[in-house]
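Record type: monomer structure entry
Structure origin: computed from sequence
Chain ID: A
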Amino acid sequence: MEIKLRINRKSPQSLTKQITDQLNDLIDRGVMTAGSLVPSERALANTLGVARNVVRGSYEYLSRGGKLDSAGRQGRRVRAKTSRSKAGGSAAAKKAKSKRAAARKKSAAGPAARKR
């Protein structure tokens, strides 16, 4: 799959940010579908005329953002979309978790701390 990206070397945005934003947009619009391979770091860097670490940084941002999966030597693939509740948890679950953590902290402090 050939993807069309444009970089502007005069832009105040870094090259990594430009590539990340464009790839993210292609994934969100469904141009790059779940399971499809993204170009290798070297191939995309050569196509765009940028250093390989620029593309690597972009791919790392997308991986941390849940957009790409690394398949080792097989390359990177677009990750299937997941619901936010599975990825980040619901607000109620986070609130309950923080309440449990506060209760554990309070009980670990001992009886003197509870009287205050």
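Annotation 1: The radius of gyration is 21 Å.
Annotation 2: The chain has two domains: 15-81, 86-115.
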